Amino acid sequence: MHYLITGGTGFIGTALIEALLAEGHSATVLSRQRLPDTAALRYVADLQEVTDEAHIDVVVNLAGASLAGARWTEGYKQEILSSRIGTTETVIALIERLNRKPRLLLSASAIGYYGHHGDELLGEDGVVEPGFSATLCQQWESAAEAAAQQGVRVCLLRLGVVLDRNGGAMEEMARPFKFGIANWLGSGHQWLSWVHRRDVVAAIRFLRDRPDLEGAFNITAPEPVTSRGFCSAMKRYKRTLLTAPVPAPVMRLLVGEMAEELLLNGQRVVPGRLAAAGFQFGYANLDAALEDILQAS
Question: What distance lies between CA 254 and its chain's CA centroid?
Fold first, then answer.
């Protein structure tokens, strides 16, 4: 099969492409990086480079500026919105003009869709609480759902915090432990709904192969932990000399609104629809994930 992948040079995209190439597939990758084409990969900087006659079986839409890439000024918040919603709208425009429509759009979203719910356990039918992340994800998903009007099956990937070595959130989360400092942010009681990057790739392939499945799916491990729970798990793999939590006021001072939205609050999310469909996680609990991620660090 031939894939169109936006954000293909990012943390999830690179792992996904590696898996797809191993299966014998090929891909067109939308990326700001101009990389050399190969026999199985073509890189484009603009979807206008894809002709109406192109044969695309599956679209995987992963593009978006990092939520933690800069302080949330009004300008950067607009960049976050446009990089996700704008890119998704260009994907829909491409699908509309393709002579042969893809059979599936897998479009990234995030568990920020639900807003803040404290200790409430959230499946895909969870109530949405207001906030920037919730508004972002709702608009992002709404843009992707327009593909259904073209007869394309749409799966929305509500991603948790994706963990693996060599990048992603783990790089920042593990840094204090490398210096012997165990920590958590704020109270430490906020929930961290995480997922191993290999399970994200496996979930994408699972949804691809199940034409009976569509709509929103929480892509999170079945056992979320609190920030303190993450700290305790890390201490089983990293020798620490002291525990030094970062107070909430300090986080608010350092990173502003982002602290409240991403770091001091969280969602306790479970992958209800994936589990009901029979998906098996390779890393269902944090200890299994950390053992894999940290063994080579």
Answer: 24
